[in-house]
TrEMBL record:
A Pfam family hit: Cyclase
EC number: 3.5.-.-
Origin species: Leifsonia stereocauli
GO MF entries: hydrolase activity
UniProt keywords, alphabetically: Hydrolase
Protein name: Cyclase family protein
Recorded superkingdom: Bacteria
Enzyme class, broadest EC rank: hydrolase
């Protein structure tokens, strides 16, 4: 059987199922880290990789890569996803009125947040997507995720693991250098190819070289536009993103994880006539690749362009919510 194509023009738009099956079989990592594995490609981040990443911190500058978590966020109710609802339980007005019941004049404030775990900057866990009834490592989907949560690959297993060398690939600036506001932004529906990714790495230079265990961040400029013009379908609508044909590159580079500034990671609309997130279907349950979405990469991108340096220490642990299939995250890039 020939290897799946890396040329989007060769995709049969009428047959998403065949393309998913071929790529799943070609790039499957089931059993690679044992039958009990719960980390997938995050296994590529070892102690030596973390030590290498720590040595990249020289200036002491840090960047938060998270969007705000508030009621003004991008969600429009798709799949019952809402924006965070922040409610105060105790306030300063309660304290002033003496209603809190504490002695000697002490008062305080408490609050609570209710939100879907994937409503803003987040990681997709390995239990988030299934392929024809199977979850990561060949387990039956119904044996992994039930109404009690992800019983096997819950996001809590990655709480100490997602720290390592990050590399920013500013595809927006590379492919569309500059516009009216000076930031490269790819148009909606733009499918980023393997050839373009490799050309971007070459253009950005040595600090963009990728090795086993790296965490890759891809900036398309979609979030830049959302901040300027409003959400306008940011959550679930059209967007630039990775082409389905990049699955082979994601596999052979042995990266640990990848995140983008878009809602869906892969190009939207997808590259088939009748499909929904087919690249997710290949890389999460078959490859075991952890995906991040809705990251704010703009400040990091500006600093990267100014310094000519695209690597950094990335600390992006999920909240260890037991049994969750995803998690909010406040990723920190340090240089």
């Amino acid at each position: 059987m020939s290897a799946p194509t890396e040329d989007p023009r060769q995709l049969d738009r009428a047959d998403a199922t065949a393309a998913v099956i071929a790529s799943a079989e070609a790039f499957r990592n089931w059993g690679r880290w044992g039958q009990d594995d719960v980390l997938g490609t995050v296994n590529f981040i070892d102690d030596a990789k973390r030590a290498e990443a720590a040595a990249l911190v020289r200036r002491g500058v840090s960047f938060s890569l998270s969007q705000p978590f508030d009621m003004n966020g991008p969600q429009l109710g798709w799949r019952r996803r809402t924006n965070p609802v922040h409610t105060m339980l105790d306030t300063g007005t309660d304290a002033e009125a003496g209603k809190q019941g504490f002695p000697h004049g002490i008062g305080g404030a408490d609050d609570v947040v209710a939100m879907p775990l994937q409503c803003s900057t987040q990681w997709d866990g390995l239990g988030h997507i299934f392929d024809r009834g199977f979850a990561w490592n060949g387990r039956r989907a119904g044996d992994v995720v039930t109404s009690d949560g992800d019983l096997v690959t819950g996001i809590e297993h990655m709480a100490a693991s997602l720290v390592g060398r990050g590399v920013l690939l500013d595809l927006g600036r590379f492919l569309r250098p500059g516009n009216a506001v000076g930031d490269g932004e790819l148009p909606d529906g733009y499918a980023i190819t393997t050839q373009e990714i490799e050309a971007c790495i070459a253009a950005q230079g040595e600090t963009s070289r990728l090795g086993r265990g790296d965490i890759v961040l891809v900036r398309t400029g979609r979030y830049t536009r959302a901040r300027r013009e409003g959400w306008n379908g940011y959550a679930g609508g059209p967007s630039a993103g990775l082409s389905f044909t990049t699955a082979g590159w994601l596999h052979r580079t042995e990266i640990a994880a990848i995140a983008t500034d878009t809602w869906g990671f892969e190009v939207r609309p997808n590259e088939f006539d009748d499909a929904f997130q087919p690249l997710h279907q290949v890389v999460i349950p078959n490859m075991g690749l952890t995906i991040g979405e809705m990251w704010d990469l703009d400040a990091l991108a500006h600093d990267s362009a100014a310094s000519g340096t695209y690597e950094f220490l990335l600390a992006a642990p999920p909240i260890p919510i037991t049994g969750a299939v995803g998690s909010p995250v406040n990723p920190i890039a340090l240089r």
